[in-house]
# Entry
Amino acid sequence: MKITSAEFIRSAVSPKDWPAGNFAEIAFLGRSNVGKSSLINSLLGRKNLARTSNTPGRTQAVNFFLINNKFVFVDLPGYGYAKAPKTVRQSWGKLAEDYLSRRENLALCIQLIDARHPPTQLDLQLDEWLANNSKPSIVVATKSDKLSANRLFKNLREIEAALSSERVIAYSSHTGKGKEDLWSAILSAIGNA
Ligand code: GTP
Ligand code: MG
# Structure
């Protein structure tokens, strides 16, 4: 996939901040620290367009990025950061749920799961919510470079069994594994924009 431009549009803390326009949107979802921002950077071949950090819960707003002047990547706040105060956790959940349930130009949800671990309770809840609300979605297992091939194979089958999605794409933002597969899933969701 050739990226001719990738620019940060804005950060939204409520629906009134969402950008206008009818570009198809691809949303990246997953628990805090699972690797959402890294995945976005890796797909785009940009170093730090979406800010990454070792501190979980860093992305606290919905961040929009315009790609090739044709479609939009949406970095949603991570969930499940236990140390965050309850009010903060609730407002993150609300931000994401508002976005997912109300955004009309949402073309694909990419749910990220850490390849090293079974899906958490919150991962399962999100998966169920996406399925119940008929949201087009795919699952990506992140940080696959941290596992042996055998272990990865085994964990992918476990993740597939636990979630409603039929296929899980193994990804590594460090090595680029899974990049082509994920781009083809994205392009087919947006009708090859
Ligand atoms: P929040 O914004 O806090 O929700 O986190 P996030 O999901 O955006 O995670 P982020 O991309 O900031 O990555 C969190 C940590 O995981 C960073 O230290 C990354 O370097 C590391 N990481 C992300 N992806 C990979 C990967 O594919 N492989 C390895 N080994 N580390 C990764
Ligand atoms: Mg992030």
